[in-house]
Amino acid sequence: MKPFLRWAGSKVQLLPAIQKYWRPTYRRYVEPFCGSACLFFSIQPQTALLSDLNEELICTLKQVQISADVVLECLYRIKTDEETYYKIRAIDPCSLSPNERAARFIYLNTLCFNGLYRTNLAGQFNVPYGSRTRKSRLDPNTLRDAARLLKSAVLENSDFESVINQTMDGDFLYLDPPYATGSKRIFSQYGKDIFSEKDLVRLVASLHKAADRGVRFVLSYADVPEIAAFRQQWPSIEVTARRNIAGFVDSRRQAHEVLITNCG
Questions:
Q1: Taking the chain (264 residues) in consecutive chunks of 10 residues, what is each chunk's mean pLDDT?
Q2: Rounded Cα gap, residues 133 and 124, in angstroms
């Protein structure tokens, strides 16, 4: 099953390499940086804990889980032209009903530039309209299928450390954190809060504790110097993925990624 959301930085291309570490015998699937949850939808675990610091994302997943058909009704009432897009983008999501809020998030995700999630310093979504010719809508059956699978998941809007601390022997933990950027905001920065090198230190410490409890994990990250602390302590393999974050042909390239794991 494919995810119903587009997500910049998604590891869809790396699924064959990542999902080989999954075993149906694991007690539970846990993902603290779930994004579009492409691995979750691909392996379809019986029990899962999905979390993300993005409140809008988790609110949307919860509402799809509860009432996908009502979300679809709200979604299909909105026109897909550029003018309407900016009107919908300007709405404060907190002023909407839960179903309307979820429909707004899916609508913006479908029509925005390159599936990017970016906010300004006030936390307001500010990605431009993706294409004047883009008129596609989400397939209703895709959302209904996602809703059925999400019923097996507990959904949390939490910091990654609190989620990792909940894991125990028999759990499988998949982590795809944002790239640490220090104090510099970049175009592809995820949300108003920057994932920093200090967060990577917290992540290493949390993974050590989880591993000591018997938790198996796989972490995917860019092949950059900041990941050295992980590679020194656990086995890793290098993989490549085609990246198109800029949305233009001359910006497409092969990006080097690293999978770090304690799975035997």
A1: 89 93 97 96 97 96 98 96 95 97 96 88 89 73 97 97 97 92 45 75 95 97 88 91 53 77 91
A2: 25
CA 256/CA 242 separation, integer angstroms: 9
Instruction: Report the SS3 class of residue 183.
Output: coil
- CA angle at 104 for the pair 159 and 249, rounded to the nearest 5°: 85
Q: Which domains does the chain have, with CATH numbers?
A: 12-261 (3.40.50.150)
pLDDT of residue 75: 96
Alpha helices in 170-255 (DSSP H): 197-212, 228-231
Whether 10 and 36 have beta carbons less than 8 Å apart is answered as: yes
Tokens read off for 23? 């075993």
The model's pTM: 0.90
252-257, Cβ contacts within 8 angstroms, sequence gap of 24 or more:
255/222, 256/222, 256/223, 257/11, 257/14, 257/220, 257/221, 257/222, 257/223
Cβ–Cβ under 8 Å, residues 226 and 197: yes
Please name the residue that has the structure tokens 């995700």. Answer: 109
Which residues are CB-neighbours of 66 under 8 A, at least 6 positions away?
none
Residue 214 CB neighbours (<10 A): 12
